[in-house]
Amino acid sequence: MKSLRKLFLVLILFTCYLSSAQESKGDVSSLPIDPKTNCYVRYYYFPNLEAYFDNLELVYHYKLNGQWQKSENLPSNYGGYSLYNKVRVAITNFDGDEPYQLLKVHKKMYPYNSKGRFTNQTASTE
Q1: Residue 45, helix vs strand vs coil
Q2: Sequence ranges of the domains in the chain
Q3: DSSP class of residue 31?
Q4: For residue range 43-80, what is the model confidence (pLDDT) as tens digits?
């Protein structure tokens, strides 16, 4: 009877471990750190989409019907845009959870360019 209880307890603990391990997408220690700003390079900004990709949670932040959304994939109206297609700008000065707070700054620094070319591929407000 004791061995059955121990087995049941081990199964419960193992199930709890698996469920908590699936919740975390990434580890912040795996992200690179910008030496100038001392911030993690967590987000990439896509000027032609006015959207962001979060390297920690592995989700996109984009605007849909006037509201910011979070999803693992971009919606179909974004034309199947690939993470590595055209241009992306590394955001080096923001560690928070809502990168779109800086959208106005990023739009000015990195306006849409149909050729996808920028002289500096990182964003910083400093």
Answers
A1: strand
A2: 28-123
A3: S
A4: 999 888 889 999 999 999 999 889 999 999 888 777 65
d(CA 93, CA 99): 10
Find tokens 């979070």 and name the residue. Answer: 70
Distance of CA 78 to the CA centre of its chain: 17
The beta strands (E) that lie in the chain are given as: 43-46, 51-54, 59-64, 67-71, 89-91, 122-123
Nearest by Cα to 72 from 87, 90, 54, 99:
54
- pTM metric for this prediction: 0.68
Structure tokens at 103: 């959208």
Please check the confidence at residue 22 and state whether its pLDDT lies above 50: no
Those residues with Cβ within 8 angstroms of residue 79's Cβ, 6 or more apart along the chain or in another chain: none
Q: What are phi and psi for residue 101, nearest 5 degrees?
A: -60, -25
- C-alpha angle with apex 66: 63 to 67, nearest 5 degrees? 60
Given the DSSP bridges, would you call strands 51-54 and 43-46 parallel, antiparallel or unpaired?
Answer: antiparallel
> DSSP character for 88?
-
